[in-house]
Amino acid sequence: MAAGLRAVMENAAVIDAVVEVRDARLPRATAATGLHPTLARKRRLIALNREDLADPAMTDRWLAALGREGIDAFATIGTHAGSLKSLRSALFSKRPRDGRLRVAVVGAPNTGKSSIINALGRRKRAAAQDRAGITRHVRWLRLAEGVDILDTPGVLPPRIVDEASAWQLALCGCLPETAYDPEEVVAHFEAWVRRNRPDKSGEISLASFARQHGMIRRGGELDGLNAARKFISRFRAGAFMRVTFEPSD
Ligand SMILES: Nc1nc2c(ncn2[C@@H]2O[C@H](COP(=O)(O)OP(=O)(O)OP(=O)(O)O)[C@@H](O)[C@H]2O)c(=O)[nH]1
Ligand SMILES: [Mg+2]
Q1: Which of 23, 25, 76, 115 to mutate for ligand 1's pocket (most ligand atoms within 8 Å of CB)?
Q2: Which domains, and CATH codes, for the chain?
Q3: pLDDT (0 to 100) of residue 122
């Protein structure tokens, strides 16, 4: 088990709340499953992170759907501390009057967990302290009086919920690079856009992307692999469109 998840699990008994970081474009496939049974019973707050890259109307629907389930959910941009204000206040409001609230962050790979911890902990980082009494090598960042956050997030495997999950997780950066073929991923995305976003299908073409970027081998053949890699990295930077692959209903 990865060190971060081990730290979270080992501290399960003293953790009061869990912030589950999901990718707002794939809120189902990046849901944290397989949580320690002790952690599964804790207060849960969900951050739909990378909301800047997701379809805003779909994010609103997700927030409403999670709200109907009684879950505190927030749309966040892990790299912008300002976007974490509501999440931060929700954590503070859960702080027990006579004690402290200890928070752990968990989520699928690359969903923005570390960014969120850093952004939440920024101002109080100097006050971070080791608590050898709880678990060695684990640091708690003091967010404010009474609220501490475990500085190592727990990484949980994403879920392949349907056939499309694998390429969508790959495209969004939640699978290791060795786990997918970039050209196949882009081909799936092109087909998805043709079906679901015909308005954009003219813009989403690996062949024209490769040509635009001069990714052509001697002999005129497209350098598909390198073009697909570059395309994926441009997608992740939000160059093409805001998109949510999984609807809330
Ligand atoms: N556009 C955008 N980028 C983000 C957001 N949050 C984080 N990032 C970027 O996404 C990348 C991954 O963020 P991390 O915070 O390292 O993600 P993580 O979940 O800790 O990743 P692992 O530890 O590898 O599982 C970084 O390049 C961040 O700058 C966001 O809300 N929007
Ligand atoms: Mg991290």
Answers
A1: 115
A2: 3-155 (3.40.50.300), 163-236 (1.10.1580)
A3: 67
